Each structure stands twice: as structure tokens, then as C-alpha cells.
């Protein structure tokens, strides 16, 4: 029979859980509010993308820069969440895909390159996140010590992660601005920034390929282990 103290402790625990449930709403966490702002900025930038490159560039760049702010806010206010992590990744993938769609139209001779970049970006990140979930990782950014060295360096250092992603997006923004005639950018500025960000952009595509291969191997290993358990059970 439970004692009075046990009953009181259970009631207190239930009341506390109820209080936390009432007080906390993941959808209104500060980093997630920043995430919604990123989505709005990205959508508005798409509206101006065809005819107003300067306005589009500012709005799109702000959306990308806020990618760092939501992570800082999540750690600062102890508001990390699975919803926030997925919102962040989906926003990143969708905004990049939308910009690459425009580039495929602006540079029609290179359309297949931009189409493949979209496919690589989406497939690589989806497979990586799914593989991480299947492995029981708390976050897709948690890379095990046995994983590929490049992936560990990419995900374990927030400065490296932000710098690579920023340079990647900046290179695509530069190509977007260069598609206008006359271009809002001076040729010297364009070629200087392109020379800095282009190799980083290419490197990020290599990382995406490595990420997809690593996720594929991990999923195949999980399949093999599950099949072994099924055979033992039978």
C-alpha cells in the first residue's frame, strides 16, 4: 500500500508536470520565433527576387544570418528542441533550393548543374538526419568519433559550420546579382568575392557527398544488425 508521503509526492510531481506543460510552449520558444522570422524574410525576398535584386539580397541575407542567432538563443535560454532543429534545417534547405531554382532559369545553359545541386542538398541532409535518428542520436549535429573526419570537423565547430554555410550562400547570392544587366555589383567586387567563396561552395558540395555516403553506410549497417537479430529470433 502506498503511504501518504508517497501519494503526496506523486501529486506534487503531477502538479509540477502540469505546471511545466502549461507554462512551456515549444512553438513560442525564442529560437523558434527567430526561425519564423527567417521564413518570413525568405518568402518576402522571393517576392522581390525577379525585379529588385538589392532588396532581395538584403532580405535573403538577413534570413541566412539569423541562422546563427537561433542557435545562440537556443543555448542561451535553454530552449533547444527537436522542432526547432527540424525547422532550422527545413528553412535552410528550402531557401537554398528556391534561390537555385532562380539561378537555373537565369543561367539556362547550366540549369542541370543547379538541379543536381538541389537534389544533392536535399537528399544528403535528409539521409543524414534520418540516419542520425535511427542511430539514436539526440541531434543530427552529434557526430560519433567513428564517423568521417571531415564531417566531425564540419559539425563539431560552430564557427566552421557557420562560415562554410555563409560562404556557400554568399556565392549563390553573388551569382544571382551577376545575372542582372547591369549587375548591382562592380566586376572587381564580384570576382574578388567569387574567388573567396567559390572554393568554399565547392568544398561544401564535397561534404554533402561525404555526408550522403556516410549516412548510407550507417543505414546499411543498421539494416544488417536488425537482420541478424531477426535471424537469431527465428
Shape: globular
Number of contiguous helices: 8
- List unreliable stretches of 5+ residues: none
Q: Radius of gyration over alpha carbons?
A: 22 Å
Count the E strands: 0
CATH architecture: Up-down Bundle
Helix content percent band: over 70%
- Can you write the helix and strand succession as a string? HHHHHHHH
What can you see in these coordinates?
There is one protein chain. This protein has 234 residues and is an all-alpha fold. It is 81% helix and 0% strand. It has a single domain (12-233), classed as Four Helix Bundle (Hemerythrin (Met), subunit A). The protein has helices spanning 4-23, 30-48, 53-76, 82-106, 111-135, 149-156, 158-178, 187-233. The longest helix has 47 residues, at 187-233.
Topology of this protein?
Layout: H1 4-23, H2 30-48, H3 53-76, H4 82-106, H5 111-135, H6 149-156, H7 158-178, H8 187-233
Helix pairs in contact: 2-3, 2-4, 3-7, 4-5, 4-7, 5-8, 6-7, 7-8
Features:
Four Helix Bundle (Hemerythrin (Met), subunit A); mainly alpha; 234 residues; 0% strand
Concise description?
The protein has 234 residues and is mostly helical. The chain is built from eight helices and no strands. It is an enzyme of class 2 (transferase).
Amino acid at each position: 500500500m502506498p503511504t501518504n508521503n508517497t501519494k503526496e509526492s506523486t501529486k506534487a510531481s503531477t502538479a509540477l508536470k502540469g505546471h511545466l506543460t502549461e507554462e512551456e510552449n515549444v512553438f513560442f520558444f525564442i529560437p523558434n520565433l527567430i526561425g519564423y522570422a527567417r521564413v518570413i524574410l525568405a518568402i518576402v525576398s522571393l517576392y522581390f527576387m525577379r525585379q529588385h535584386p538589392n532588396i532581395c539580397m538584403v532580405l535573403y541575407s538577413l534570413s541566412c544570418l539569423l541562422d546563427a542567432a537561433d542557435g545562440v538563443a537556443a543555448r542561451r535560454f535553454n530552449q533547444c528542441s527537436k522542432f526547432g532543429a527540424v525547422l532550422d534545417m527545413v528553412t535552410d534547405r528550402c531557401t537554398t533550393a528556391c534561390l537555385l531554382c532562380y539561378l537555373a532559369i537565369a543561367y539556362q545553359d547550366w540549369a542541370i548543374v543547379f538541379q543536381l545541386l538541389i537534389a544533392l542538398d536535399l537528399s544528403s541532409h535528409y539521409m543524414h538526419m534520418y540516419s542520425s535518428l535511427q542511430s539514436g542520436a539526440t541531434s543530427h549535429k552529434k557526430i560519433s568519433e567513428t564517423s568521417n573526419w571531415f564531417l566531425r570537423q564540419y559539425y563539431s565547430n560552430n564557427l566552421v559550420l557557420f562560415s562554410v554555410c555563409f560562404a556557400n550562400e554568399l556565392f549563390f547570392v553573388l551569382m544571382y546579382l551577376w545575372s542582372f544587366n547591369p549587375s548591382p555589383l562592380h566586376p572587381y567586387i564580384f570576382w574578388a568575392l567569387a574567388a573567396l567563396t567559390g572554393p568554399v561552395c565547392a568544398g561544401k558540395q564535397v561534404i554533402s557527398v561525404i555526408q550522403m555516403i556516410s549516412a548510407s553506410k550507417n543505414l546499411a549497417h543498421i539494416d544488417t544488425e536488425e537482420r541478424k537479430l531477426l535471424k537469431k529470433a527465428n
